[in-house]
Amino acid sequence: MSELLLDIKDLWVEYRSDGEVVHAVNGVNLTLNKKETLGIVGETGAGKTTTALSILRLLPERTGYITRGSIRFDQIDLMSYTNTDMQAVRGERIAMIFQDPMTSLNPVLPVGRQIFEALELHNDSGKTRAEMDARVDEMLELVGIPARRKKEYPHQFSGGMKQRVVIAIALACDPELLIADEPTTALDVTIQAQVLAMMAELKDRLGTSMIMITHDLGVVAETCDRVAIMYAGEIIEAGTVEDIFESAFRHPYTVGLFGSIPDLDVDESRLRPINGLMPDPTALPKGCKFHPRCAQCMDICKTQSPEAYCPTETHSIRCHLFGNRKDVTL
Questions:
Q1: In this structure, what are the phi and psi dihedrals at residue 69, rounded to the nearest 5 degrees?
Q2: 90 secondary structure, DSSP code
Q3: Greatest extent of the chain over all pairs of C-alpha atoms, in Å
Q4: Pairing between β-strand 177-181 and β-strand 209-214 as defined by DSSP bridges
């Protein structure tokens, strides 16, 4: 039986600025087991990154607020932790690969020094400087960068190499959970494949659990065990990779995401985009948040938020097309 590592229940997050309230995350429920990879998929503005930042308690101090919900990591209530307490968790037990490797590194410090800083900050076992320096060499070699390059600066590395350095920093302290926020967005296709293969190998070798945030269903198919489809701050469909990719039951938004993927076997000159735009998070529509863009919208969709329909024990879809069924914990 799988052992639960992360449990998020009824998470609500707001951004407040200039008298406006942005409803970024609206009642999210997520679980992650040890040694498992969960993919969170959705368009820009869906709330994926905000959910990840909430886990690490890295929301902007004066504008970002968790208004409701609980986040438990390995039986620890992270919501009860102070910022000082969280500093011992960030990097050591939960690490994050941020969205843009080009801006994630300090341009005035050698890359080896930046890996060393992570080890120095979490040196609970009392390692010597020589031991930590050896660990820097080990991590660089692990991600495919010769250790002799540790004294070089970020501008001396390509985009793919910078991403490898960021991954080395994130994995330096052997975290139990790695959050990867669009780790391949800024990379070309060939380098994307190399980075994803390397991350999968390192995850298996180190036994790390992972949350992969992406808009690319191809990445999900290659790397994830389970998938959560996010829209307007809500999880509207969740299940195993097989549930999402092969089930006869899918949320209309999920169907739209698959329809936007190029198919080389179909002779069509244009992709099939999802009509419309993500709703304004300061004034979300009533009922199902997707109904203004849904070709199958019914009257009930405009007034009532749908309950979850569960075709299987692992698959949940929040859509009125399938009727109201009792929710399950995914």
A1: 115, 175
A2: B
A3: 68
A4: parallel
CA distance 286 to 234: 13
* Long-range contacts of 145-149, Cβ-Cβ distance < 8 Å, separation of 24 or more: 149/111
What DSSP state is assigned to residue 274? Answer: P
Place of tokens 């979490």: 122
Beta bridge partners of 96: 179
C-alpha 308/C-alpha 302 separation (Å) is 16
- Give the model confidence (pLDDT) of 159-208 as tens digits: 888 988 998 999 899 899 999 998 877 677 777 788 888 888 888 888 89
pTM for the predicted model, two decimal places: 0.90
pLDDT digits (tens, 9 = 90+) for 36-53: 999 999 999 999 999 999
Q: What are the CA-CA distances from residue 17 to residues 46, 117, 207, 234 (Å)?
A: 19, 34, 41, 22
Strand duo 94-97 + 177-181: pairing: parallel
Q: Which domains does the chain have, with CATH numbers?
A: 91-209 (3.40.50.300)
Torsion of CA 199, 107, 149, 133, to 10 degrees: -80
Q: What is the distance between the alpha carbons of residues 66 and 54, in angstroms, rounded to a whole number?
A: 7
Dump strand ranges (E) for the chain: 4-17, 20-33, 37-41, 64-73, 76-77, 94-97, 177-181, 209-214, 226-231, 234-240, 308-312, 315-318
The Cα-based distances of 245 to 30, 33, 43, 223, 242 in angstroms read 19, 21, 18, 13, 5
Report yes or no: 228 and 52 within 8 Å, Cβ to Cβ: no
CB 239 within 8 A of CB 227: yes
